[in-house]
Structures are given as C-alpha cells and as structure tokens.
Amino acid sequence: MFATYLIGLREGLEATLVVSILVAFLVKSNRRNRLPHVWLGVGAAVALSVLFGWLIEYTSTSLLQTSESRELFDAVTSVAAVVFVTWMIFWMRKAARSIAGELRGKLSEALAVGAFAVTGMAFLAVIREGLETALIFYSAAQSTAGGAGRNAILALVGGIATAVVIGFLLYRSALKLNLSKFFTWTGALLILVAAGIFKYGVHDFQEAGVLPGLNNHAFDISSVLDPSAWYSALLSGMFNITATPSVLEVVAWVAYAVPVLVLFLRKPAKPAAPAKPAATADTSAEVSKPAEPAATEAPATTPQRA
Questions:
Q1: How many CA atoms lie within 13 A of 257 on its CB side?
Q2: Do the Cβ atoms of 4 and 150 come closer than 8 Å?
Q3: What is the mean pLDDT of residues 129-149?
Q4: C-alpha–C-alpha distance, residues 227 and 241, integer Å
C-alpha cells in the first residue's frame, strides 16, 4: 500500500501548495472576503475527483459484464495513468519555478471579474491534481492483489492527510523542506510505480487476448521470491515485481523505467550565456570597471508565507 500512500502524498502536496499560493495572495492583497470562494472551488474539485474515482471503480465492477471487457478496461486505464504520471512529473519539474507567478496572475484576473471567476479559477487549479490522483490511484491499486480495497483507500487518504499537514506547516513557516529534492525523489519513485502499472496494463492486454504470450514466462523466481513473505508483498505492491512475469511484461517494465528515469534524473542543460559585446577602444586614460556577474536565483526551499 506504500505506492498508493506515495501517490496521495505527492499529488496531495502539489494541490496543497497550489491552494496555499492562492490563499497567501488573497491574504496579502487584503481580499480575505474572497477566501470562501476559493474554498468553494477547492471543495467542488475534490468532490468531482471522488466522483470520478467512484465512476471508474463502478464501471469496472458493475457495468462491464465479461472478464475480457474488464481486463481491457483496466489495461486502458493503466496506460492512461502511466501517461498522466509521466506528463505530471516532467511538467512539475519544468513549471515549479513559474507556477506561483502564473497562479497569482490568473487569480488577479479572476478577482477583476468577480466571485464566480475566483471559484472557477480555484476549481481549475485543483481539479487536474484530483483527476490525476483518482486515475493513478485506481490503476496502482488494481496492479496489486488487493485491488482498490479498504487498505488502499486508507493509504491514499493517509498520504493526502500527510501532504495537507506538510503544506500547512510550510505555509506557517514552521517547517523547512527542500521541495526540489522532495519532488525529485518522489518523482523517481513514481516512475518505478508507473513502470509497474505499465507492466500490469500489458498483463491485462494479454489476458484480454489483445497481446500474445501470456504463458511465455521470462523467468521463474518463485523459489526465491516467496509470495507469502513481506518483501514479496512490498515489491509487488510498490513496483509490481512478480515471480513469473511474461516476456512482454518484463520488456514493458524495462522499456519504460530505464529511459524515463535517465531523462528525469538528467540535469537540465544550462542556458547559454549571452554573447558579450565587442570591446571598444577607450580614448580616455580611465579604465572601466568590469560589470559584476548577475546573480543566479537559487531554488526556493519553501513557499513564502504572505
């Protein structure tokens, strides 16, 4: 269940940071009267996300009648979840520095329009995280033997609750956290979780008859990986590592995990320094003092409290 806890922690902290930026901006600009509209938008986004998660579960368990259709549905949702995870991780790494300014700008525009616009802006800022969480949680829970049961839901709620507490402490400046390192480490772990989800999706495609080779096992380590052992449950629940995977499952896991991890952990290239203008001859005896280099902005470790 650690995988679903990690999903709740990561997605919950992103949503909490978004909300804290909006709240801090309203408090700082003396627009506290608009705070209820922000909370209304946040509440609507959470409610819709829960409804979306229930709809996915209901579709799989009640609407689909045959095992083949359920396997195909789970396979499609697994692939969709992997796409969302990958996009979210790389987008967050790229937009982390500018997201606060963008949110403040959008909220300023919404304040100029009215209360409904503020509610809608807060709703849109949170709903993406909520829908992603519902889809990724369902796929991660299905990839384990227990499915989206009570323990998986409790782990997800626990991760979200932890994220809310961390976000509140950051807002109150009671906790210092290097968010860059936090999102890097959790991002790397989520990539491995996504690799397991992708492997599970391939397995479902094989069970649905879309892909061949269900019984063509790549290896059998059941004598080493005892299914009843705690470490087997951890590896299976976290990364979907099983004792007798098919060849296509192993290929899918490696083909996703290795290149995505390399691209994610690779340091982004530094922008090229602007070309210096050609030096001109100085007719006077005075020698100009060289310009001091521009200071580079260090990554913020915590969001600034209003």
A1: 20
A2: no
A3: 78
A4: 11
